[in-house]
From TrEMBL:
Keyword flag Ubl conjugation: no
Sorted UniProt keywords: Isomerase
Stated name of the protein: 2-(1,2-epoxy-1,2-dihydrophenyl)acetyl-CoA isomerase PaaG
GO molecular function: isomerase activity
Native species: Marinimicrococcus flavescens
Gene3D superfamilies in the cross-refs: 2-enoyl-CoA Hydratase, Chain A, domain 1 (3.90.226.10), Lyase 2-enoyl-coa Hydratase, Chain A, domain 2 (1.10.12.10)
Pfam families recorded: ECH_1
E.C. no: 5.3.3.18
Gene encoding the protein: paaG
Keyword Isomerase: yes
Alphabetical list of NCBIfam families matching this protein: PaaB1
Organism taxonomic ancestry: Bacteria, Pseudomonadati, Pseudomonadota, Alphaproteobacteria, Geminicoccales
Family: Belongs to the enoyl-CoA hydratase/isomerase family.
GO BP, one annotated term: phenylacetate catabolic process
InterPro entries, per the entry: ClpP/crotonase-like_dom_sf, Enoyl-CoA_hydra/iso, Enoyl-CoA_hydra_C, PaaB1
Amino acid sequence: TEATVLGRREGGVLVLTLNRPARLNSFNEAMHTELAAALDAAAADRSVRAVLLTGAGRAFCAGQDLSERQMGEGAGPPDLGDTLERLYNPLVRRLRALDRPVVCAVNGVAAGAGANVALACDIVLAARSASFIQAFCKIGLVPDSGGTFFLPRLVGDVRARGLALLGESLPAEKAAEWGLIWKAVDDERLEEEAMTLATHLASQPTRALGMIKRALDASAGNGLDAQLDLERDLQREAGRTEDYREGVRAFMEKRPARFGGS
Ligand code: T3D
């Protein structure tokens, strides 16, 4: 059977491609398992200095594979809390906790958990023809995979409520205007722009970038005092890295820095 997640290395960048195109890369257990394994391997491999997540075919990801959720006559309801606990929540936590930048190239429609997994990534680029759909309400569910956390923080309460309660399709361009994603780019430019961005990130002070992720994530739950303390602790750690030493030296010598990632 074919891999449901394709992985390939390009220098310091690990490219992960969701690969169930006939089902619009919707999630089944196998895809969850393979994606989790790939992200764990990336976490353990310091030579991976950025991750690029994208989808095969015309979609990015249509969320949960609903063909696995049809209930026959007399069958009881599935425990969706269990699948969130076992599969979706750990995925979102893995993406956020990975101390390397994760770029998401949304190549087509991103619906349901597919949209929110994209939002859990650090920098989201989308093809102009792509769209974001909080499809949950249309089938009687609640936005998951962090949707109710990310949406109001990214676009504010008014837009979060509209998106989550209406389940309408938000085109990439508007998503960028609203601050839901970083940038919309012409379809034919997406792959190259996303790879250029990921390659750039992979050449940067990797440990500092990991700490930046940590600080920004913590700010959602911290007051100013706690956040200032955290910045102090992280800066102490950053100040001891080889890349900081190189950054200062390169600046003083008026030359581009060569960061090794440690
Ligand atoms: O269950 C749990 O564990 C809890 C977790 C839930 C997380 C969730 O993500 S719930 C939300 C699930 N996702 C959706 O509700 C989205 C369903 N899909 C759509 O609304 C539409 O397919 C799209 C808007 C994404 C794209 O529309 P369109 O017109 O471009 O394509 P299409 O014709 O609808 O789909 C093409 C094929 O993919 C089609 O199959 P066919 O007819 O060619 O054999 C369609 O059935 C299939 N497909 C699309 N999405 C899913 C899917 N098959 C299974 N599951 C899907 N989510």
